[in-house]
Amino acid sequence: MALESESRTKGIWRGALALTIAAFVTKILSAFYRIPYQNIAGDIGFYIYQQVYPFYGIVIALATYGYPVVISKMIAERDVEQDEEGITYILKISLYFLLIIGMIGFSILYIGADWIARLMGDKELALLIQIISFSFLLFPFISILRGYFQGKNNMVPTAVSQIAEQFVRVVTILLSVYVLLKSGHTIYEAGAGAIFGSLAGGFAALLFLTAYWFKKGTRWKKTIIKKTKVDAKKIIFMLFVQGFTICMANMMLILIQFVDALSLFSLLVSAGMEEQMAKVSKGIYDRGQPLIQLGTVIATAFSLTLVPLISGARKRGDELFIKEKIRLSFRVCIVIGLGAAAGLACIIKPTNIMLFKDDSGSLELAILSGSILFTSLALTIVAILQGLEHQWAPVFALLIGVLMKWLLNIWLVPMYQIIGAAIATMISYMTVFAFLYYTLRKNIKSSLISKEIIFRIVVASVAMVVLLQFYLWISSKFAFGWQGTRLFASMQALVGVAVGGCFYIIAVLKGKVFSKQELSLLPFGEKAIKFLFKNDR
């Protein structure tokens, strides 16, 4: 029995690792593909795609982070008792529930596409909204299959399906927009082709999961289920409440983008900006989204590795261990988030040229860079609170942040255009973080980080900023007529990342922000220990 328990625990850890790697790969792909997309379609083409993207982001949250998690929990409970009839019952009730949700989502978007497009201020988006509505018909089946396999402690199908979905989606999107534009179609028709790529990704995920289901010989139980202890009302309650809270907690970046999709273009036009220029401005502003997403993924990749330790400690009732690891997660996130935000803000102009061909909107992107720190901290705290079984706090924080973003857009965009939108975004993320920070600190009843450690981190980041400014000044002096070119900007940006990143890491490590024991818990921590303590032997 002990061996079986140990084997199951190892399987859970391996599964968690597989899902973590899959999530990291898909988020990196999701951030990077938008760069060549903008290069192919231009700022207006990018604006068109980004206006509709939040609808797809909502579906991804439902089919990846929300309902599969809830379904897997219920199935895992029945699997321990080898209650296959109960598992079948859970799957059937869950499928009926999700089909209703999917049909509601599909109907709202498909039937209401014209109204939503008018609300956004651009009636030509209606076709794209109708195309993306079909993704709501796919998500129930994807969610059920992922939830089943995860509940059976088999994370491989979910992980592979996520990567397959993102890979097929990215390839289809880029090929569609390139071929359609080259063959003389309008920018909106090319956008519709790109949106179809999202459906292709969903079909790829569903195809793989279905094939795996039948390959393993899995079948619905055909017996009439009367003996199972599973209550249908409990299943629906868990799907409704836990599914909602988990989905909402993972929609922070998407819902803030959704506010911009609904309001920014129309606010720019109502403030007197010509429609074509407003589309270009929104497209330039949207350049910041992949940068925020990429920075956030990198910043949270390290801090979130500690969350499973926190969940395990909670089950053991080890309060001291929980507090230690929460503080460490928070510190890691501040170090990487602040470094990424400050570093990107410094080299934003060459980075903008390198990625998007010109330096349009560099000031706005520099402001948006600050969001990386607050989104990283907020997402880390969300994961910690979920590990501690506090599901509602992230939902309230997000609702406050969305309301704040909407009100600030209405106030700031007419005065400062997309600079106002960038400021509104950063303040909204700050608000979400502040609410979550207060909730977590109140929960653990102690400070999350000392003032001395904050001072050391800030000193390291300020020193990096000074170094990067000096580097940019020196490198510009030796441009020899290449300044402003994409090649020179790429060199400046990439060398700047290497120089600034290495200096910052060394400054943080030498500043003893982390102890030797803490470093040993982090990825690449052993190498950092060897570097720091090589003279102690």
TrEMBL record:
Superkingdom field: Bacteria
Subcellular location: Cell membrane
Transmembrane regions: 12-33, 53-72, 93-113, 125-149, 170-188, 194-214, 235-259, 291-311, 332-353, 365-385, 392-412, 418-441, 453-474, 486-509
Entry GO terms, CC: plasma membrane
Assigned keywords, A-Z: Cell membrane, Membrane, Transmembrane, Transmembrane helix
Membrane topology recorded in Swiss-Prot or TrEMBL: Multi-pass membrane protein
InterPro entries on file: PG_synth_SpoVB (IPR024923), Poly_Biosynth_Transport (IPR050833), Polysacc_synth (IPR002797)
Main location per the UniProt record: membrane
CDD domains on file: MATE_SpoVB_like
UniProt name for this protein: PST family polysaccharide transporter
